Amino acid sequence: MLVKYLFINGESGHPDKKITLAYTTGYHDPFRYGSYRAEFGFKFFDLPLVVWGSHGYNSDLIRYYRNVTAGGIAVEIGAF
Questions:
Q1: Is the pTM of this model over 0.90?
Q2: In what order do the strands lie in the sheet with 15-24?
């Protein structure tokens, strides 16, 4: 499940911020190994940055069955 909200700039009419909330789960035992991810995207001198945090199991294939909490900052290519 994914929910995304874009904040539209009144002057340009283009989005300049976004909030994304995501929930994912495995298909073998649904809702047993779920993961949550939250992102806040914004433009910093026209550079689209995203601050994100996640908690859950499927952060990558190596640690799929480990409960992991992570966070970071990223540059988003093709962003809002």
A1: no
A2: 2-8, 15-24, 35-44, 47-56, 68-75
